[in-house]
User: What shape does this take?
Amino acid sequence: MNFKNFSISRSEGKLFSKLSGDTNNIHLDKNTGYNSIYGDNIIHGCYLIIRFLKGKNIKEFQNIKFNFRDGFFYNRIIKSKKIIKKNSNNYNLIQDNKIKADIYLNNKHKENESNHYKRITFKKKFLIKKENKEKFKDFNSSLDMALCYLSRYVGMYYPGKNSLITEIDIHKTDKILSQNNYINISSFRVDDRFPIIINILTYKSYKIFFKTAIRPTLNLKFNKLNKKTLEDVNKINKNIFIIGASSGIGLDMLNIFKHNKKKKIIATYFRNKIKIKKKNLIKIKINIFSDFKEIKKIIKKYSPMIIYYFATSKININTNDKYQSKIYKKYFITIPVKIVNYSKKLNNCFFYPSTKFIDDKNKSSYSMIKLKAENILKKFNKKEIFINIERIPEINTKQNLKLIDSKLPNFSNLILKSKKMKKKVFFN
Assistant: This one.
């Protein structure tokens, strides 16, 4: 069977979610996906394995290991590419021109069971009743059943809500390892300082070792402003227009500017609602691509103003491809230039956040587009519109979430510590 390219639809994800009992929001709730480290909903890793094994018609094996490097998205082509290497039967799964999983088939990996499993952190036994077996009639193997319960365990029990699977190592033996109607799973938290968990599942003749992790989530702590900063905020004598104010840098800035009670503050959001309430705060839902007329209306009505542009897509600083470049160009060049062009001669200011990765000679699509945007914006006549560009280092946003917390500062922390940056941001 030719199984080089395939995709998984959202409706398949819903069906597997119902079937397996893994209803974790990361797979189907759009808002959860949008605010995660992935920027979108991801496919159940266990369902991806089931689809791969069926597509390749792989039934007989001693061992197969899946190493997940990144999440897979619905309705996008997944390419299955065999690794050309002597005496190997290994594959890569590629999506959006990026290797997202490695598959090692019958490489005779040693079972990695150790004494760790004698120090169990969490365990669960699933009883598979007759009616459950009927529900799984579309999945015709014991392995499918085991993978469904593995997915449920990770997504709903341990780690649960903020979970992800990094590795699944399946071993098939000649022995019956558990009672016929029971799936046993045990887990061990390696070190409380790190979010890694090692697990083992046994069902019939299958022993599955798998690694999971606690998915990082954004935790923004807003600092109380000092007297001098409050004075600077209240000295701003133009209306404030924050595009993309519901999360990240935009929300950070809104929490600073909300202290200005004299001027109108217009804040846009798309998926995440803005919870801040102020008499002079106007909150407007806007899709920057389809609702550009609304942006023009706001500029016309409330100028003179300072425009802060924080709209963004999911950023990956380690890739360089045409697909990402097209997305970045729309977000970071096309729309900002349209806004600046429309704002000319209205006594407006425009703040544009660039990236320190340019200084690091990073050659990713993101860095190259940001550099191009800088060069374009610098050509605008300062008499028509005043533009400040700031190259920002890694800060505490959902874009920079990592498994190991790197304790990055909020953008507001940088502003409060740097007079030069504050002057640029406040245009004073």
